[in-house]
Amino acid sequence: MKARIQWVEGTVMLAESGSGHALVLDGPPEHGGRNLGVRPMELLLIGLGGCSQFDVLHILRRARQPVTACVVDIAAERAAEDPKVFTRIHLHFVVTGRDLSARQVERAVQLSAEKYCSASIMLGATAQITHDVEIRAA
Questions:
Q1: Fold of 40-137
Q2: CB burial string 12-37: b at 16+ within 10 A, e below
Q3: Fewest beta carbons less than 10 Å away: which of 8, 9, 75, 95?
Q4: Residue 101 CB contacts under 8 Å (≥ 6 apart), including other chains
Q5: Pfam families given for it (predicted)?
Q6: pLDDT at 2
Q7: Residues of the chain falling short of pLDDT 50
Q8: Residue 85: C-alpha distances to residues 45, 82, 91, 125, 127 (Å)
Q9: CB under 8 A, 24+ apart: contacts of 102-110
Protein backbone atom coordinates (compact mmCIF):
# COMPACT_ATOMS: atom_id res chain seq x y z
CA MET A 1 0.00 0.00 0.00
CA LYS A 2 1.28 3.44 -0.88
CA ALA A 3 0.22 7.05 -0.50
CA ARG A 4 1.61 10.42 -1.45
CA ILE A 5 1.15 13.73 0.35
CA GLN A 6 2.08 16.90 -1.54
CA TRP A 7 2.37 20.26 0.21
CA VAL A 8 0.40 22.95 -1.64
CA GLU A 9 0.78 26.10 0.51
CA GLY A 10 0.51 27.14 4.14
CA THR A 11 -0.87 24.06 5.86
CA VAL A 12 -2.77 22.78 2.81
CA MET A 13 -1.73 19.37 1.50
CA LEU A 14 -3.04 17.15 -1.26
CA ALA A 15 -3.11 13.47 -0.31
CA GLU A 16 -3.33 10.79 -2.97
CA SER A 17 -3.94 7.15 -2.23
CA GLY A 18 -2.20 4.34 -4.02
CA SER A 19 -5.51 3.60 -5.73
CA GLY A 20 -5.52 7.10 -7.22
CA HIS A 21 -8.04 8.93 -5.04
CA ALA A 22 -7.27 12.45 -3.80
CA LEU A 23 -8.16 14.33 -0.64
CA VAL A 24 -7.36 17.83 0.62
CA LEU A 25 -5.85 18.12 4.10
CA ASP A 26 -5.56 21.38 6.04
CA GLY A 27 -4.98 22.66 9.54
CA PRO A 28 -7.15 24.83 11.74
CA PRO A 29 -6.96 28.63 11.47
CA GLU A 30 -5.19 28.89 14.84
CA HIS A 31 -2.30 26.94 13.30
CA GLY A 32 -2.19 28.89 10.04
CA GLY A 33 -4.72 26.77 8.19
CA ARG A 34 -7.63 27.99 6.11
CA ASN A 35 -10.01 25.14 6.94
CA LEU A 36 -9.97 23.89 3.34
CA GLY A 37 -9.87 20.20 4.17
CA VAL A 38 -9.90 17.41 6.70
CA ARG A 39 -7.39 17.52 9.55
CA PRO A 40 -4.95 14.59 9.51
CA MET A 41 -6.11 13.31 12.92
CA GLU A 42 -9.74 13.52 11.78
CA LEU A 43 -8.71 11.38 8.84
CA LEU A 44 -7.47 8.71 11.25
CA LEU A 45 -10.91 8.60 12.88
CA ILE A 46 -12.61 8.48 9.49
CA GLY A 47 -10.32 5.60 8.52
CA LEU A 48 -11.19 3.76 11.72
CA GLY A 49 -14.91 4.22 11.14
CA GLY A 50 -14.72 3.19 7.50
CA CYS A 51 -12.60 0.13 8.24
CA SER A 52 -14.89 -1.02 11.02
CA GLN A 53 -18.10 -0.34 9.08
CA PHE A 54 -16.74 -2.23 6.07
CA ASP A 55 -16.13 -5.27 8.29
CA VAL A 56 -19.50 -5.07 10.04
CA LEU A 57 -21.42 -4.84 6.77
CA HIS A 58 -19.41 -7.69 5.24
CA ILE A 59 -20.06 -9.93 8.25
CA LEU A 60 -23.78 -9.06 8.30
CA ARG A 61 -24.15 -9.74 4.57
CA ARG A 62 -22.53 -13.14 5.00
CA ALA A 63 -24.98 -13.80 7.86
CA ARG A 64 -27.80 -12.84 5.48
CA GLN A 65 -28.95 -9.96 7.66
CA PRO A 66 -31.21 -7.53 5.71
CA VAL A 67 -29.32 -4.30 6.47
CA THR A 68 -30.71 -1.20 4.75
CA ALA A 69 -28.50 1.45 6.41
CA CYS A 70 -25.49 1.71 8.69
CA VAL A 71 -24.00 4.81 10.31
CA VAL A 72 -21.01 4.97 12.64
CA ASP A 73 -20.74 8.03 14.89
CA ILE A 74 -17.30 8.42 16.46
CA ALA A 75 -16.30 10.50 19.47
CA ALA A 76 -12.67 10.73 20.55
CA GLU A 77 -10.50 12.33 23.20
CA ARG A 78 -6.83 13.20 22.79
CA ALA A 79 -3.99 13.59 25.25
CA ALA A 80 -3.40 17.15 26.46
CA GLU A 81 0.36 16.99 25.87
CA ASP A 82 2.39 16.21 22.76
CA PRO A 83 2.19 13.79 21.17
CA LYS A 84 -1.56 14.33 21.37
CA VAL A 85 -2.51 10.72 20.69
CA PHE A 86 -6.06 9.50 20.95
CA THR A 87 -6.70 8.26 24.48
CA ARG A 88 -10.37 7.30 24.17
CA ILE A 89 -12.46 6.51 21.12
CA HIS A 90 -16.11 5.48 21.11
CA LEU A 91 -17.88 4.09 18.05
CA HIS A 92 -21.69 4.16 18.04
CA PHE A 93 -23.15 1.93 15.32
CA VAL A 94 -26.69 2.63 14.13
CA VAL A 95 -27.74 -0.35 12.01
CA THR A 96 -31.10 -0.31 10.25
CA GLY A 97 -32.83 -3.25 8.63
CA ARG A 98 -35.77 -5.62 8.62
CA ASP A 99 -35.92 -8.12 11.48
CA LEU A 100 -32.22 -7.78 12.29
CA SER A 101 -30.81 -10.17 14.84
CA ALA A 102 -29.34 -8.13 17.71
CA ARG A 103 -26.99 -11.03 18.43
CA GLN A 104 -25.68 -11.03 14.84
CA VAL A 105 -25.18 -7.24 14.78
CA GLU A 106 -23.37 -7.20 18.12
CA ARG A 107 -21.23 -10.17 17.03
CA ALA A 108 -20.29 -8.38 13.80
CA VAL A 109 -19.18 -5.27 15.71
CA GLN A 110 -17.20 -7.39 18.18
CA LEU A 111 -15.48 -9.39 15.43
CA SER A 112 -14.52 -6.20 13.63
CA ALA A 113 -13.09 -4.64 16.81
CA GLU A 114 -11.21 -7.71 18.02
CA LYS A 115 -10.18 -9.57 14.87
CA TYR A 116 -10.64 -7.86 11.51
CA CYS A 117 -10.33 -4.05 11.70
CA SER A 118 -6.64 -3.25 11.37
CA ALA A 119 -7.24 0.43 12.19
CA SER A 120 -9.05 -0.45 15.41
CA ILE A 121 -6.37 -2.85 16.52
CA MET A 122 -3.56 -0.35 15.78
CA LEU A 123 -5.28 2.59 17.48
CA GLY A 124 -6.20 0.31 20.38
CA ALA A 125 -2.50 0.21 21.29
CA THR A 126 -2.75 3.80 22.60
CA ALA A 127 -6.48 4.44 23.02
CA GLN A 128 -9.26 2.78 24.93
CA ILE A 129 -11.77 1.91 22.20
CA THR A 130 -15.37 1.19 23.07
CA HIS A 131 -18.44 0.66 20.95
CA ASP A 132 -22.16 0.24 21.23
CA VAL A 133 -24.95 -0.71 18.87
CA GLU A 134 -28.36 0.77 18.15
CA ILE A 135 -30.65 -1.30 15.94
CA ARG A 136 -33.51 0.35 14.07
CA ALA A 137 -36.35 -1.21 12.12
CA ALA A 138 -36.48 -0.31 8.44
A1: GMP Synthetase; Chain A, domain 3 (3.30.300)
A2: bbebeeeeeeeeebbbeeeeebeeeb
A3: 9
A4: 63, 65
A5: OsmC
A6: 96
A7: none
A8: 12, 8, 17, 11, 8
A9: 102/133, 102/135, 104/60, 104/63, 104/65, 105/56, 105/60, 105/65, 105/133, 105/135, 106/133, 107/59, 108/55, 108/56, 108/59, 108/60, 108/63, 109/52, 109/56, 109/133
Query: Does the domain at residues 1-38 carry the CATH identifier 2.20.25?
Result: yes
Rounded to whole angstroms, the Cα distance separating 102 from 111 reads: 14
Q: Which pLDDT value is given to residue 116?
A: 97
Whole-model pTM: value is: 0.93
Q: Measured between alpha carbons, how far is 105 from 112 in angstroms, rounded to an integer? A: 11
Strands 86-97 and 67-78, by their bridges, are antiparallel
